[in-house]
Design goal:
Shape: elongated
CATH superfamily of the domain at 459-599: Histidine kinase-like ATPase, C-terminal domain
CATH architecture of the domain at 459-599: 2-Layer Sandwich
Number of helices: 18
Length: about 600
């Protein structure tokens, strides 16, 4: 039972593993992979662009704010410089340095000067003037400079007359403290006192009031801190501001929320300006993009699935019809498919249908022809069996002639009959006669029998000789390739003479691996023009027969030699002929001494 269930599952699996399902699944997986990759790529690229755009926006905002901050700081620096070099201030501090104390009226005059300078800046809440020994000249009270930390004085002294930004005033957290040391111009720029400036913290608000709404919608935050990281102005509380100032990197964490941070540095005060924007706000368009990508992928995938299903059906339905038609051939013969024109079919499918119908028609015709041939063959088998008796009858008749002549002591005639019988057996007598390859020994013996028969016909007009090297008699050679040359030598060399003629057959080793075979006669020979025409006729595409019909035999020998020994001689293989008028003719060729199997190569 389990085996049967596995067989059923295998059959079901094989039925589902058809071309239509393979096309559908392949196309579906391909489009899903393409859409997923494209969606992920677009999502990643657009996310980076949105993030860079947000960073660029707050970067520009930070640069603008830092520029406004430097402008405010330079304004305060300019005012304090004017106070420090004011003639009346220099006069009072010079007298103080010389030991002459300023009276009430002189100090009272500083009020008008201070008010004139403070009128140029709305951010300065108060302006104080101290001597070098910490005595305050303005405002009019007895406070000393000791209320300012020693680090602030050290910073002012280190600046050597430049404005030192101290930071938040310890006594007034709503103001920022700045100190400038006053150098006396008439006393070789010796220290003469200090000018202390208290500036409202709101003075450093770099954003106008009408942009607060835009910043709140964008959820941007700002932090201005001194060189020590203490907040000077911020949208956050001091604890959070200090935590942000302590963090580095392009993103910071504020209350568990990740925010993009862009930092700017003021060259005037060494203060740091930090602009913050929530990462979620910078990439809030990504969620919309993600939804759009998901919807697009879904719609594209659904549309492609429908198109893939339609396409796979269009492709496989004609093929299935063709398969059903081919299966039906096992039961009732091949039948052509209907040739209806379907506009949904492609040109290739219609051509396949047409080709199949032509194949069916041709195969049915072939089946009929084969059937008729089998009937004809069955009728001729008996005649073929009868025809096989004829060679055996010929051989037996010749053998009877031979024994009859032997009894009558006709030895010469008996040898001729025996040679004739051997010649017929070599050509058509046995199954071995149909073999393509024989040995040189067999070919020489066959040539010897042929010469014996021709000797009986020509009597004293023919003298022949065979000179074969014993070491070459085992070499394989194509069958019946030597007799046509001997026959041609007798026909054109001996019979063309008035007196007796001779034919010589030689088998010698020309060089290692090659055997040279030649047939020579002492006939009339040929002139150069006749020899050239003969060589040209042997290399022609078709044989050119002579009056005596010898051209075909020579042509066939030439073709067989070139086929089996294409590179045996420097002339490219084949026959090579040497002849001169009155000196006879020699026709020869070379063969390799390899084995039969190697000769085919």
């Amino acid at each position: 039972m389990p085996v049967r269930r596995r067989g059923i599952r295998f059959i079901q699996l094989r039925e589902h593993n058809n071309l239509r399902n393979q096309i559908f699944i392949s196309f579906t997986l391909t489009i899903i992979l393409v859409l997923t990759f494209a969606g992920a790529f677009i999502y990643g690229e657009v996310s980076v662009l949105l993030k860079k755009s947000a960073e660029k926006h707050i970067q520009q905002t930070a640069i603008q704010a830092n520029g406004r901050l430097d402008a405010l700081l330079k304004q305060v620096d300019s005012l304090t410089t004017q106070v420090a070099v004011d003639a009346y201030v220099q006069k009072l501090l010079s007298r103080e340095a010389e030991g002459s104390r300023s009276n009430f009226n002189e100090r009272q005059s500083l009020l008008q000067i201070a008010n004139n300078y403070m009128a140029y800046s709305s951010g300065i809440s108060s302006l104080e003037l101290y001597t070098i020994d910490n005595k305050r000249l303005f405002p009019l009270d007895d406070s000393s400079l000791n209320r300012i930390s020693g680090d602030a004085l050290a910073a002012a002294d280190e600046k050597k007359g430049r404005l030192a930004w101290i930071g938040i005033d310890p006594r007034s957290p709503d103001t920022v403290l700045a100190v400038r040391r006053i150098n006396l111009l008439d006393h070789a720029y010796s220290p003469g006192g200090y000018v202390v400036v208290h500036i409202n913290r709101d003075y450093f608000n770099m954003f106008p009031s009408d942009s607060a709404g835009d910043r709140s919608e964008a959820r941007e935050s700002m932090l201005l801190s001194d060189s020590e990281g203490n907040p000077i102005l911020s949208d956050m509380n001091d604890e959070t501001a200090q935590a942000v100032a302590a963090q580095t990197g392009s993103t910071v964490t504020v209350g568990g929320e990740r925010m993009l941070a862009v930092r700017q540095h003021s060259d005037v005060t060494d203060w740091k300006l930090v602009m913050l924007l929530p990462v979620e706000a910078a990439t809030e368009g990504i969620s919309v993009l993600r939804t759009a990508i998901y919807v697009s992928i879904g719609i594209a995938a659904l549309a492609f699935l429908l198109l893939a299903l339609l396409l796979s059906t269009m492709i496989t339905r004609p093929i299935q019809q063709l398969m059903r038609s081919m299966r039906s051939a096992r039961f009732g013969g091949l039948k052509p498919l209907p040739t209806t024109r379907n506009p949904l079919r492609t040109m290739e499918i219609n051509e396949l249908n047409h080709t199949y119908n032509r194949m069916v028609t041709h195969m049915n015709e072939l089946i009929q022809v084969v059937y008729e041939k089998e009937i004809t063959q069955s009728r001729t088998e008996l005649k073929a069996l009868q025809a096989q008796i004829n060679p055996h009858f010929l051989f037996n008749t010749l053998e009877a002639f031979y024994w009859s002549l032997e009894e009558k002591e006709e030895d010469e005639l008996a040898k001729t009959i025996l040679a004739m019988s051997g010649l017929f057996r070599y050509v058509i007598g046995s199954a071995e006669a149909h073999e393509e390859w024989v040995t040189v020994r067999d070919e020489v013996e066959h040539t010897r029998r042929y010469l014996q028969i021709m000797k009986m016909r020509l009597i004293d007009r023919l003298h022949w000789e065979i000179d074969a090297d014993e070491g070459l008699l085992h070499v394989p050679i194509p069958k019946l390739i030597l007799q046509p040359l001997v026959e041609n030598a007798i026909l054109h060399g001996v019979e063309s003479r008035i007196g007796p003629g001779s034919v010589t057959v030689r088998v010698r080793s020309s060089q290692p691996g090659l055997a040279a075979i030649s047939v020579s006669d002492d006939g009339a020979g040929m002139d150069a023009e006749t020899l050239a025409r003969l060589v040209q006729s042997l290399d022609a595409a078709a044989p050119q027969t002579s009056k005596k019909g010898a051209g075909v035999a020579m042509f066939n020998v030439q073709r067989r030699l070139k086929l089996h020994y294409p590179g045996a001689t420097e002339r490219g293989g084949g026959l090579h002929i040497e002849s001169k008028p009155g000196s006879g003719t020699t026709v020869g060729f070379e063969i390799t001494t390899t084995l039969k199997g190697e000769a085919h190569l």
